[in-house]
Amino acid sequence: MTSLLELAAEKESADVTDWAARLGWVVGLLLFIALVYWLMREGWKWRGTLQGDLPELPAAPDDPGPARLELSGRYHGSTTAGQWLDRIVAHGLGTRSRVELTLTDAGLDVVRPGATDFFVPAAQLREARLDKGIAGKVLTEGGLLIVTWEHGRKLLDSGFRSDHAAEQAAWVETLNNMIDTNSASDTNSASDANSTTEGTAR
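Predicted structure:
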């Protein structure tokens, strides 16, 4: 009888010990998660400080003109152009969100519910392409619409994913045609200006 009581007492003691160990592991895990979150938050703030030379984002003009294309989907972030892991976080560009894109002759209007809106003037658009990854987000090949634009003498890649992925190819074609047309127009204007200057000098 004594042996049975001792075994029962030992089992109860073991159960208590197991619960204490489990509680310790849970607390330790929560503290570790909190530490990782804090380090990530500090790293985010530090990266934002390093990118402090990036100017404020342009706002859309009052009258941008009629829409060429419209798109609803998600904004997946911006990086230094050609470096898909070098995330840009300054001015809210690192915040993923829903997005409404509108392309007009004036430029690209990026409206983000719950995040900072911005506008890319047509003269600052550089390229559009389909790709599979940006800023830690990887999709299938061609799953992302990447728009390259210039801001503050820095080239940026911004990644978007349409709710209807099939329409992204039309965006690439339209954007690149628009960029080529604007580039040709700028080249002709510069050439005309040079010709006028040379004629005046003679």
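Summary: Strands lie at 69-80, 87-88, 97-104, 107-111, 118-121, 125-131, 133-134, 137-138, 144-151, 154-162.
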